Amino acid sequence: MNMTFSAVKRLLIGEPFPTSREVHERLDKVRGLAIFASDTISSNAYATEAIMHVLIVLGSGGLALTLPLALAVAALVLLVVFSYIQTIMHYPDGGGAYTVAKDNLGRYPSLMAAAALLTDYVLTVAVSTSAGVRAVTSAFPETLEYRVIIALLAIGFITWINLRGVRESGTIFAFPTYAFVGGLLLVIIIGFVRYFELFGVAPLPVTHEVVLKQKDLTGVAYIWLLLRAFSGGCTAMTGIEAVSNGVQAFKPPESRNAAQTMVVMGVLAMILFIGVASLATTMELIPGEGESILSQLTRHVSGSGVLYYWVQAFTALILFLAANTGYQDFPRLSSFLAKDGFMPRWMQNRGDRLVYSMGILTLALLSSGIVLIFGADEIAMLPLYALGVMLSFTLSQAGMSRLMKKVGSLQPGESLFTGVTTIHYEKNWRWKQHVNQVGAVVTAVVFAVLVATKFLEGAWLVALVIPLLVYLFDRIHVHYEQVATALSTSTVQESDLIEVANVVIVPIADVHRGTLLALQYAKRLSNDVRAVCISTSPQMRERVTARWARFPRLTAGIKLDIIDYDYRDILKPLEEYIAHINRVEFPDQLVTVVVPEFISPELTAQWLHNQTATVLRARLHHMKDIVVISVPFHITEENGQLKA
To answer: Is 144 in the same domain as 259?
Structure first.
C-alpha cells in the first residue's frame, strides 16, 4: 500500500496542533530545566578534562592546578548567571544577547551577538553528540570505529523528537537529565565520603601514576599555559544563555519561571563541576585517549558495577540530548532575526507542531556537516566551541550595563519604553550596573584569551565565520529593504503601472491532450494566441502539423509558429522567440506565457520524464515583464488506461 507524503509526515511528526494550543505546549520548570540546562550540566563530562588536557604538559604536578582553575571558572559562571537573570526580567520576550545588544548597543553589535550564538548552537549539537559517542566508546571500545555513524544517528533522533514539539521533547529528555544528575551526585558524595573516610568506608583510591613534564615552562610561557587551561574549562559555561533566549517557551509567569530555572541550572552545574574537578585532582587521574576522566572517576569511586554503567549510560544520553539546547535556541533566535529582516522570512514560520521546523532542519544539516568534518572528535572541536559564547556574554553584559544606566537616569515611579522593553527606576541599579561591567570585562578578557590561545588550533575558523555571518545578515536586510521599497505604493500613480499585452504564447512540443487543454485555456485570456514549437527534425514538423490539422475548431484563430532548429537545446530558441515578442512587438508590457505540463499520479514517476516545463518556467521567471501560467494535465487511472 502506497503511503502519501502527508500520511508519512503524520506518522512521524504527529497530528498538527492549532495555534490556540500554543500556551499548553509551553514548559514547566521541571521540563524547562531538562531542555535548557542539559548543555550546561552535560559539560561536566568534558570541561574538567579540557583543563587537564592542557595542564598535562606540566606533568603530574601541573594537574594539581585543575581545581583552582575550576573554581575560577565556577565564579565566572555564577557572575554570568546573575547577569542573565537581569536579562530575563527586563526582556521577557526572549532573544537573550541579541535582543539586549539590539536595544542598547546598536545594529552591528546585535548581529555579532546573533552570529556568535548561532555558531555556538551548531557546535553545541556537534560537540554534545560527539562527546556522547565518546562516553559510549569508553564503555564499549569496540564501537570506536562507528563513532561518526552513531553521532549522525543521534542528531537524526533529536531532530525527529524536536519536530514533534517542545513539550514532547521536554518530557522525553527529562528523565535522562535527572538520571545523570542523580547518578553523578551520588558518585561525588561517595567520593567525598571515601575521601574523609566516613562511616568506616574504604579510603578514596589514588592512582599515583607519574607523568613527566613535557616542557619546563616559566614566566610568560607558564602564564600562557594556565590561560589556555582556563579557557578550556570555560566550556563549562556553554548553554548558560539558553534560558534567556527561550523565555517564551515557559508557562506563565514566563520571566519568573525562566529566572528560577536559570538559578537552579547555574548552582547545580557548578556543584557537579567543582565536585568532579576536586575528585579528579585528589585521585591524581590522568587524561588519556581511551577513557574519559569522568569514566575513570566513576570507576575508581564506585567500581565497575551498576552505578558505573548507570553514570556512563546517562552521561552518553545527556551528552546526546544536550544538543537539544541548540535545537531550542537556534530556531528561536533565527526566528527573531527573520522577523527583523536579517534571515530568510521562512525561518519564522512554525510547523504543524508549533515549532520552528525549518530552523530545526537547518541546524541538523549544519551540525551533521561539522561532525563529518571533525570525525565526531569533540576534543578537536572544543577550541571552536566557547569562542562564540564568550563574545555573546560580553555583548550581553555590556548591553545590560548600558540599560542599567538608563534605569538610573529615571526618577522613582517613572518608566521609559526603549523601543524593545519598558524599564522602571530601580534603587539598586548602580550595583547591578557594576556587576554587569565586571562581567563584561572578565568575559571580554576570556574571549581574548580564547582567541589568542586557540587561534591556531581552529578558533580562527569561528573568528572568520562570525564576521561573514554578520555580513550575510546585513546583505539579507538590504535585500528586504529593496523589496519593500520596490513594492511600496506610497508614491504609485495608476499611470505608473505596466500595461498587459494582448498576447498569449503557448510553447508546445507536440499536440496532445495536455497542449490542447493549455490552448483552450489561452483562448480565454486573449484573442491573440500563438503556439510555438521548436522542430528538431522534418519528421517532427510533419507530425505536429498533421496533428494540429486534426482539431480545426479548437485551433481556429491560433497562430502556429514552427521554428526549425538543428541543435538539441530547444529552450534557447524558445527564450529568444518569447524575448522578441516581449521586447520588439510589446515593449514595456506584460506578456503571458502559458506552459502546458502533465502531472503523474506518483511523485517518483514524475522524475521519469523530461523536466522541460520545469526548467522553462525557472528561466522565464528571471525574464522581465513575463507572466508564466502553468496548465497541468493530470494523468489518472481513467485517462491513462491502456487500450487493448
So the answer is: yes
Q: What is the pLDDT of residues 253-275, one digit of tens each?
A: 889 999 999 999 999 999 999 99
- The pLDDT of residue 1 is 40
Alpha-helix residue ranges (DSSP H) falling in 283-339: 293-302, 306-339
Instruction: Please indicate, yes or no, whether residues 440 and 555 belong to a single structural domain of this protein.
Output: no
Find out whether 239 and 37 touch, Cβ atoms under 8 Å: yes
Burial of 596 (0-12, 13-18, 19+ CB in 10 A): buried
Q: What element of type H or E holds 379?
A: helix 378-408
Q: Which CATH number goes with the domain that contains 573?
A: 3.40.50.620
455 and 334 co-located in one domain: yes
Spell out where 583-624 has E strands. Answer: 589-599
pTM for the model: 0.79
Total domain count for the chain? 2
Based on the domain organization, do 454 and 414 belong to the same domain?
Answer: yes
Sequence-ordered alpha helix ranges (H) in 455-537: 460-487, 513-525
Cα dihedral across residues 270, 276, 277, 279: positive or negative: positive
pLDDT digits (tens, 9 = 90+) for 415-469: 999 888 899 998 889 999 998 999 899 889 888 888 887 788 788 888 899 999 9
Instruction: Phi first, then psi: give them for residue 596, nearest 5 degrees.
Output: -80, 145
**Measured distance CA(631)–CA(265) in Å, rounded:** 58
How far, CA to CA in Å, does 526 sit from each of 58, 65, 366, 437? Answer: 86, 85, 49, 71
Four-residue CA torsion sign, 163, 167, 168, 169: positive
> Could you read off the pLDDT of 64-80 as tens digits, one per residue?
899 999 999 999 888 88
- 422-424/415-417 β-pairing: antiparallel
Looking at the structure, tell me whether residues 126 and 256 fall in a common domain. Answer: yes
Quote the cell numbers at residue 317.
Answer: 544520553
- Left (φ > 0), alpha (ψ -120 to 50) or beta: where does 375 sit? left
Handedness of CA 35, 37, 39, 42 (dihedral sign): negative
Within-domain flag for 606:
yes
CATH code where residue 66 lies: 1.20.1740.10
Answer yes or no: is 88 within a domain: yes
Sign of the C-alpha dihedral, residues 299, 304, 307, 310? Answer: positive
Structural domain includes residue 461: yes
| Alpha carbons 460 and 467: distance in angstroms, whole number | 12
Among residues 108, 77, 129, 106, which one has the least CA distance to residue 390?
77
What is the residue-averaged pLDDT of the chain? Answer: 86
Q: Output DSSP code: residue 248.
A: G
Domain boundary, last residue among 450, 481, 512: 481
Within a domain: 98 = yes
Give the sign of the dihedral formed by CA 172, CA 128, CA 50, CA 450: negative
Give me Rg for the CA atoms of the chain: 32
Query: Which range of residues forms the domain containing residue 464?
Result: 39-481
Reading the block at residue 58, the C-alpha cell is 606540566
